[in-house]
Amino acid sequence: MIVDDEPKAVNLLEVLVGQATGWQLLAKCYNGLEAIAFLKNNEVDLVFLDIQMPGLSGLDVAKEAAGRAHVVFVTAYDQHAIAAFDQGAVDYVMKPISLARLASTVQRLKARIAEPPADLSGILASLTLLKSESRSYLRWVNASVGATIKLITVDEICFFKADSKYTLVATQSAESLIRKTIKELTDELDPQQFWQIHRSTLINARAIAGITRDERGRQLVSIKGRPEKLEVSRSYAHLFKGM
Predict the structure, then answer these.
(1) What b-and-e string marks burial along 153-182, b requiring 16 or more CB atoms within 10 Å of the CB?
(2) Angle of CA points 139, 143, 145, to nearest 5°
(3) Of the candidates 51, 61, 30, 55, which has an alpha carbon nearest to the alpha carbon of residue 206?
(4) What is the structure's pLDDT at 238?
(5) Max CA-CA distance within the chain?
């Protein structure tokens, strides 16, 4: 199976690995939730797995696959992470994907696909530590509620939505305004937790209640504790494939 939130990367891996191996592709998954659901109900020999995805990351998926499938990490991590990959005795392919690197990975996989999968505990611990040390994300915002400035932790926030010169901050019980733009928030928030679903909207993935389509075929996201249904633009529709 191939797990990556970038459709172009999924399609490239599907073509190249299929041509090189002839192995059967069981699933293409575009987010961690979809991948974990498939792994729980199907036997898989090999997973090509993107680490950095919104919502549940590739590390969460790897925990589900550990001991059950060979894992090839597909990653844009920099060179500081290479030692962690090598010590973990697992294969990895760096983005942008190199045909030469992918070919060598496939040759190694062919030689050991019938062997038990490698122990992922060490590599997962190292990558989790690297992720936590790599940068710190915004943990709270100072928002205007009437004449009062309120401190709101990001875990309380259901979504951000552009509103003229300001950005609306919505929790389950209140709304307030901040001066940060959606672009600034996208750069400062943890992309595993906050997904951009429209040029004007960021949502807390943990607050998603469900997704539906209206009579025009648009995807609409329901938020826990909120009455709104937020539109997903076509550019971000792949985030919800399989949901």
Answers:
(1) ebebbbbbbbeeebbbbbbeeeebebebeb
(2) 145
(3) 55
(4) 79
(5) 67
Give the type of residue at 95: K
**Residue 48, helix vs strand vs coil:** strand
Distance (Å, whole) CA 145 – CA 203? 20
What per-residue confidence (pLDDT) applies to 84? 59
Low-confidence ranges of the chain (pLDDT < 70): 77-89, 131-135, 242-243
Could you give the 3-state DSSP secondary structure of residue 2? strand
Q: Looking up tokens 């690297």, which residue turns up?
A: 130
Tokens of 215: 């009579």
Would you state the pLDDT for residue 96? 80
- Quote the pLDDT of residue 78: 57
Reference 73, options 4, 133, 140, 132; nearest CA is: 4
CA 144 → CA 164, 183, 200, 203, distances in Å?
15, 19, 19, 19
**Of all helices (H) and strands (E), which one includes residue 108?**
helix 99-112
What are the structural domains, with CATH classification, of the chain?
Answer: 2-132 (3.40.50.2300), 140-240 (2.40.50.1020)
User: How much is the pLDDT for 103?
Assistant: 87
pTM, two decimals, is: 0.59
Per DSSP bridges, beta strands 140-145 and 157-163 are unpaired
pLDDT of residue 123: 81
Q: Can you tell me whether residue 150 is helix, strand or coil?
A: strand
With contact defined as beta carbons under 8 Å apart, do 171 and 158 qualify? yes
Closest by alpha carbon to 71, among 38, 97, 47, 92?
47
Distance CA 44, CA 19 (A): 19
